[in-house]
């Protein structure tokens, strides 16, 4: 005689809940958000005030006013090389060609107006005013 045993109920397969994981990660990241800007705010404010970005074939800001003894840093954000050269006296300050994300710094110790340009792209000009 044949025995007809009752079949076991199918096992429930637990599925990985991607939405729940994403929500948990987002909440964790947002919980850290108020701490992160406070930690970096002082550094960002200090570095951006004396920084000239080179982006889209332009110096930004085009005119920067600083105090005597200030070090100004140019940062190339373009995908092409640029230079920074003093217009009146190239010996005063002249950067080598800067690739993407390269930096060049110069300390202005004498008050005055310093016009500069990119020797590769002479239409790119800027001014540093030292008080």
Give a written overview of the molecule.
- By secondary structure, the protein is an alpha/beta fold.
- It has two domains: 16-47, no CATH class; 50-130, Cupredoxins -  blue copper proteins (Immunoglobulin-like, Sandwich), CATH 2.60.40.
- The chain is 23% helix and 28% strand.
- It has two helices and eight strands.
- It has helices at residues 18-32, 35-49; strands spanning 51-54, 59-60, 63-66, 70-76, 85-86, 103-108, 112-117, 125-130.
- The strands form two sheets. A four-stranded mixed sheet has the order 2-1-4-6.
- A hairpin with a 4-residue loop joins strand 1 and strand 2 (59-60).
- The radius of gyration is 29 Å and the shape is rod-shaped.
- It starts with 17 loop residues before the first helix and ends with a strand.
- Residues 35-47 have low confidence and may be disordered.
- This is Cupredoxin family copper-binding protein.
- Keywords: Copper, Electron transport, Metal-binding, Periplasm, Signal, Transport.
